[in-house]
């Protein structure tokens, strides 16, 4: 009785071709995926900024003051006059289980500063964007 030998599997050339095709597909998909991720981070940042900006304005309406820092939106203000109108931790900003103010899409804190009383706007509020603090002002995101 003779036993037939059956060679199963792939040859080396077949494996190389399959890996090359997969590499080519990954290279073609990388650009659009990277662009999509950048846009998603920017949209997340702007959405978070709009929520925080609404919270700042609601705080101002309730207390008559703009918050000294963004933390004032989630903790009782130290200033007693402002604290009288403050409605509580969850009244201004939905933290959705977080313990702190949301960050931008690149996991950096937003920039919030009160301006002088005679300034055009009462406060500055922006994100430095993907480049961070070294970004030129033209790359900053505003809501």
Structure description:
The protein has helices at 12-63, 80-85, 89-92; strands spanning 111-114, 123-126. It is mainly alpha-helical and 143 residues long. It has one domain (12-139): Glycoprotein, Type 4 Pilin (2-Layer Sandwich), CATH 3.30.700.10. The chain has a two-stranded antiparallel ribbon. Strand 1 (111-114) and strand 2 form a beta hairpin. The radius of gyration is 27 Å and the shape is elongated. The relative contact order is 0.13. The mean pLDDT is 89.
Brief write-up:
The chain has 143 residues and is mainly α. The chain is built from three helices and two strands. The protein has one domain: 2-Layer Sandwich (Glycoprotein, Type 4 Pilin).
